[in-house]
Design goal:
507 residues; alpha/beta; Rossmann fold; 2 domains; nine-stranded mixed sheet; six-stranded parallel sheet; 17 strands
Length: 507
């Protein structure tokens, strides 16, 4: 389990703000709200920190304020009892949810920051609502915070919160972490509100990015669009200093991690072991190639399927010897582009099945939905190859989860050059350009026939890296960077960016 952080960036509490609270709300048949603990990387990272030191989590509970807000707050309070921290809801109207979350967050920032500018809808009302909702979050933070607290704001939904906090007279120290990529200047300038976003981000005291590439893109945008900003330090520094007027802002690189020990321990449980054994028996000795992706155009699932189809065409020895198990997790189903993407994936799966199915062997086992924890870990354990090939990703924790769960140490990780995880894992993964269908096909074949010795060497090294730079390291390094006396002692970014292979484009 994650150890409690021993870094003390402030004397007060830690107050976390994110788009969603770390809970799942459900309204029963009796009309009463019930709250259960949520899951996900951010929840896994921050919950033990708050439990250890006390604090508050501010976020949207996923419910309409007109639906018995009093009962909702009572359910949240009951969940907080004994947890060591409290949760504070920010209630959004249906229109605010539509324009802030589905609008500006997911039809402007998400596609633009993932290099899909043609998917953007720069509707001015989205920006107006985004600013309004960020103000709501700032007001909630002012309500719950007190002197000495550290306010840690997360992700692209809340980039303007610190500016609003200053306007409200809040003096607490603030930090911001961007979980998705930050775009290159050529993309960022397409954003009509680019100057406002940059100035809002510079209202935080500390800004964290997933990779040196993301921070470099941000600093390049500052240099071009806000030339009065002075940028200090070297590209290899873990934290660099930006001065704009009387503002001094630290800008750092902090690749998010997983709880390695928790994943390894759960993967070794009897329940997961039994399910893994059944998967092995069901596979009839065939090798399992695994894909786990949320339904999103940034994940590149159609590109992956085309690479797998070419691998079967080009390398007949793979037929009836490997099976691709592809889980696609529902996401943003009320956005038309996502429904079209789902239809494209299903069309490709059907075409590949029709072309290659023989006897009792089908080349793909496709599922649209969710797996429980046991099912996911069992597939991680049994997969001979993990195919993690996003077109663009801030980090991609599936790659790290797969390695932590690969207890036998013989799995092969095929990883996109455009995943943030590549900076740490590039030396021992098989790197691919997901747009290069031939390269993906070749990597699938190489992974499937790789010697046991090479598999064990690569996976052993991957697991050590992920274990050394685990979830506690991520939290500790960010909080240490927030300290006036701690940020200069952080190691260089080269600590986790090994020498890239020949021909690889370094980020």
């Amino acid at each position: 389990m994650t150890r409690e952080t021993d870094v003390e960036p402030m004397q007060g509490r830690l107050v976390v703000a994110s788009n969603r609270l770390p809970v799942v709300l459900d309204r029963g048949r009796d009309g009463r709200w019930r709250a259960e603990p949520g899951s996900g990387g951010l929840v896994t990272a921050m919950r033990p920190v708050l439990q250890g030191r006390g604090g508050v989590w501010v976020g949207w509970p996923g419910a309409d304020p007109e639906q018995d807000g009093t009962g909702l707050r009572k359910a949240l309070d009951e969940l907080s009892e004994g947890s060591g921290y409290s949760v504070h809801p920010v209630l959004l109207t249906e229109k605010e949810k539509e324009d802030f979350y589905l609008g500006f967050s997911n039809q402007v920032i998400w596609p633009l920051f993932h290099d899909f500018q043609t998917q953007c809808n720069f509707d001015p009302r989205f920006w107006e609502t985004y600013r309004k909702v960020n103000r709501k979050f700032a007001e909630a933070l002012r309500e719950v915070s007190r002197e000495g607290d550290f306010l840690w704001v997360h992700d692209y939904h809340l980039m303007s919160v610190a500016e609003d906090l200053h306007a409200l007279g809040v003096k607490s120290q603030t930090g911001f972490f961007l979980h998705i990529p930050f775009p290159h200047l050529d993309l960022f300038v397409k954003l009509p509100w680019r100057f406002s976003i940059l100035r809002s981000l510079l209202s935080f005291d500390l800004i964290g990015f997933q990779s040196a590439r993301d921070r470099s893109n941000f600093l390049q945008c500052l240099d071009a669009l806000l030339p009065s900003a002075e940028i200090g330090g070297k590209p290899t520094d873990r934290v660099r200093l930006v001065r704009l007027g009387d503002r001094h802002v630290r800008v750092g690189v902090f690749p998010i991690a997983i709880d390695f020990e928790e994943f390894a321990s759960e993967a070794a449980s009897s329940e997961v072991s039994e399910r893994a054994a059944r998967l092995r028996a069901e596979g009839l000795g065939r090798k399992l190639v695994l894909g786990v992706d949320r339904l999103d155009y940034s994940k590149g699932v159609p590109h992956k399927l085309k690479g797998f189809r070419l691998a079967l065409k080009r390398y007949p020895d793979l037929r009836e010897r490997v099976t691709l198990v592809q889980l696609v997790i529902p996401s943003r189903e009320n956005i038309p582009e996502y429904e079209r993407l789902k239809m494209e994936i299903e069309r490709l799966v059907g075409a590949i099945q029709g072309e290659f199915t023989r006897g009792d062997w089908a080349p793909i086992h496709y599922q649209y939905g969710h797996w429980d924890r046991v099912e996911l870990l069992a597939h991680y354990r049994e997969a001979a190859v993990a195919l993690v090939t996003p077109l663009k990703d801030g980090m991609n924790l599936v790659a790290k989860e797969y390695c932590a769960s690969s207890l036998e140490g013989e799995g092969v990780l095929i990883l996109s050059e455009y995943a943030g995880a590549t900076a740490q894992l590039q030396n021992d993964a098989l790197l691919v350009n997901p747009f290069d269908v031939e390269g993906v096909a070749e990597a699938i074949h190489e992974g499937a026939i790789m010697s046991r010795e090479d598999r064990r060497r690569r996976m052993g090294s991957l697991r050590r890296t992920i274990q050394d730079f685990d979830l506690s390291w991520w939290v500790d390094s960010f909080l240490k960077a927030a300290r006036e006396d701690g940020w200069r002692d952080l190691p260089s970014v080269h600590t986790f960016q090994p020498q890239p292979p020949e021909g690889f484009f370094s980020f």
